[in-house]
Amino acid sequence: MAGFIDTSEFHNNMKIEIDGEPFVIVEFQHVKPGKGSAFVRTKIRSLLSGRVLQPTLKSGEKVGKPDIEEKDMQYLYVQGDDYYFMDKRDFEQTFISEKALGDAKNFLKENIDATILFWNGKAIAVTLPNSVDLKVVKCDPGVRGDTVSGALKPATLETGFEVYVPLFINEGDVLKIDTRDGGKYLTRVATAG
């Protein structure tokens, strides 16, 4: 632990440590009741397990400041359940388990840049760019005359992830995919051929 943080310093996305575990503040609210002392309602998410807690802290109470570092790294390869990344400054490599990676594994392709979060020197999470460009490797052709407005079909991307796309998308097309909310199709970047 690298010190303490007072509840008066809280802001959204701040990293804190409670009971030896790192959390990120999702939201918080300072409450000053008519009677009694002020307190802070918080909603925090564990950086290790993803579980969400809603502790109430006394105003002025101190929580831990975690030993957290973020590094810009490049994705290299997967070996078993471990995904390897390289620091572009000193070429040092580290890995993150598939479990800790979560949904981010659906959008990883070689040489993509990502921000790796380290806690006490151990890689615990990855933040990808808001969108990535991925090639369609399997997709049924659109059927002529099937012009229902907003109709979608499944397409398998080069990472093995399946996303729903408009009927005009074909195998070999390169698509921009949103990495923030489960991987939604945004637009076609390039066409096949």
Automatic annotation (TrEMBL):
GO annotation, cellular component aspect: cytosol
GO annotation (BP), single: peptide biosynthetic process
Stretches assigned to the Elongation factor P C-terminal domain: 132-188
GO molecular function, one term: translation elongation factor activity
Alphabetical keyword list: Cytoplasm, Elongation factor, Protein biosynthesis
Signal sequence, start to end: none
SUPFAM superfamilies in alphabetical order: Nucleic acid-binding proteins (SSF50249), Translation proteins SH3-like domain (SSF50104)
CDD domains: S1_EF-P_repeat_1, S1_EF-P_repeat_2
Functional pathway: Protein biosynthesis; polypeptide chain elongation
Gene3D superfamilies: 2.30.30.30, Nucleic acid-binding proteins (2.40.50.140)
Transmembrane regions: none
Domain Translation elongation factor P/YeiP central: start-end pairs: 70-124
NCBIfam families cross-referenced by the UniProt entry: efp (TIGR00038), PRK00529.1 (NF001810)
Family assignment from sequence similarity: Belongs to the elongation factor P family.
Function of the protein: Involved in peptide bond synthesis. Stimulates efficient translation and peptide-bond synthesis on native or reconstituted 70S ribosomes in vitro. Probably functions indirectly by altering the affinity of the ribosome for aminoacyl-tRNA, thus increasing their reactivity as acceptors for peptidyl transferase.
Name of the protein described by the UniProt record: Elongation factor P
Native source organism of the sequence: Myxococcus llanfairpwllgwyngyllgogerychwyrndrobwllllantysiliogogogochensis
